[in-house]
Amino acid sequence: MRIEDIIKTQVQLPLSRKVIVNLLYTENWISDKISAALKQYDISIQQFNVLRILKGQKGKPANLSTIQERMVSKMSNTTRLVDKLIKKEYVSRVICSSNRRKVEITITNKGLDFLSEVSPTMNKFENELTANLTEEDLTLLNKLLNKLRT
Question: How many domains is the chain partitioned into structurally?
């Protein structure tokens, strides 16, 4: 469906605006779909992202700024996200006794088990979401999105 039909406009949008509106609409559409898929696991997209970042640390602790710079959504309150994951026992936080500003965050075994449970569902979901695109389409789309950001 064309973006003009979705936003119900008869106005001929300039191509650059059409692309931006389409990207913003699609980002929200994808976020809504991911949120719905994660809802059954009682976790947000941002919390899931933090867990994947920490898993990628391969056992090495991360600090809040490391997590923040790797977040997909830079608007996230990393401290609040980590606090929620601590309550779920998916991550642990250790405050350095000699420097209280130094905080180390690691994923717990429970967090790794949770990711092992959720990841197949998310992989299947991602494949279904992009099923209308060929591998060439996906490669080109990634290339164009990277080019847009440079």
Answer: 2
Distances in whole angstroms, Cα of residue 122 to Cα of each of 75, 78, 99, 100? 23, 22, 38, 37
* pTM summary value: 0.86
Q: How far apart are CA 18 and CA 109, in angstroms?
A: 45
Q: Is 106 helix (H, G, I), strand (E, B) or coil?
A: strand
β-partners of residue 14 are: none
Q: Is 1 or 94 the better-scoring residue by pLDDT?
A: 94
Q: Which domain holds residue 21?
A: 1-39
Sign of the four-CA dihedral 143, 145, 146, 150: positive
23 inside domain:
yes
Q: What token pair was written down for 29?
A: 């559409």
Q: How many CB atoms lie within 10 A of CB 79?
A: 13
* Side-chain half-sphere exposure of 129, counting CA atoms within 13 A: 16
Q: What are 71-125's pLDDT values in tens digits? A: 988 777 888 999 999 999 999 998 877 777 778 999 999 999 999 999 999 999 9
